[in-house]
Amino acid sequence: MAEITRKRQGEMIRTVFEILLGQPEGLPAREVLAKAENRLGLTEFEASDYPNRPGVRRWEKTVRFATIGPVKAGWLVKERGRWILTPEGQTAYERLTDPEQLMAEADRLYRQWRRDTPLDTTTTPEPSDEAVEAVGLLEEAREDAWGEITAYLATMNPYDLQHLVAALLKAMGYYVIWEAPPGPDQGIDVIAQADPLGAKGPRIKVQVKRRPDQPVTVEELRAFLALLGEGEVGVFVSTGGFSKPADALGRQQERRRVTLIDVGQLFDLWVTHYERIAEPDRLLLPLKPVHFLALET
């Protein structure tokens, strides 16, 4: 990657950080890359395709590779296809205004991380074209996979999603004693308990919302909390996440115990307990692991 200088890499990273300033929840990686391209413009080399992969530009892969150091420095978080600037990253952006200085500090922190991680296989600071391409392709593959999973869940029949949550609870060792039948929503979709007779532990009431583009509001969470009896535990699953007021209300509860689960947490639990999920129920969200050469962060 000799055609890409450290100064140019620093310009890329500063532009990425600038785009993410004021975005506490981050932005999709592809959106960040498109905005950075518009702001920076591309050199002829950056705009060119890889010789062995016509139609695959160097630009996106180059920027993704340049973020390795900032990620290990704790300046940038990559989470399910979104890039999020951390407070430390904002401080670095404000303090290290020279692009080369920014990359030098990122390199220093990266090397420190490497010393603390002796088994790491990340590529060297001057990687080959193939390594840069591989890192970018792996990131894009992960983002595409997550996009397919969220799109699948977003179009799932609401009662299938409800049954998916019930199947997950069973795999986690709980006994599901009731699932809501089709009909008007009464606020509770699943009831589970720790043992068949309900003699141990609290009863668990679950509400499931399949609304990918609309977070649960604080009013909806209050309505759910009102359905919890003394000693009962509430679990609210929402594929659209939770508004900030709703999230704050959930965390502030002391008397009524409630757990809020968004689509990412639901997926993580599904993966963790996948082998214990009943075979027919796995078909609700069937998964297959794919192995890649680990050349990335």
Shape: elongated
Helix content percent band = 40-55%
Class derived from helix and strand content: alpha+beta
Which sequence of strands runs across the widest sheet?
6-7-8-9-10
Main pleated-sheet profile: 5 strands, mixed
User: How far do the termini sit from each other?
Assistant: 17 Å
Low-confidence stretches: 119-125
Number of helices: 13
Helix-strand string? HEHHEEHHEEHHHHEEEHEHEHH
Average pLDDT works out at 91
Beta-strand percent range: 5-15%
Number of domain modules: 2
Radius of gyration computed on alpha carbons: 23 Å
Number of strands: 10
Task: Indicate the topology.
Elements: H1 6-20, E1 27-28, H2 29-40, H3 44-47, E2 49-50, E3 53-57, H4 58-66, H5 68-72, E4 76-79, E5 82-85, H6 87-95, H7 99-116, H8 129-154, H9 158-171, E6 175-179, E7 190-193, E8 204-209, H10 218-225, E9 233-238, H11 244-252, E10 257-261, H12 263-272, H13 279-282
Parallel strand pairs: 8-9, 9-10
Antiparallel strand pairs: 1-5, 2-3, 4-5, 6-7, 7-8
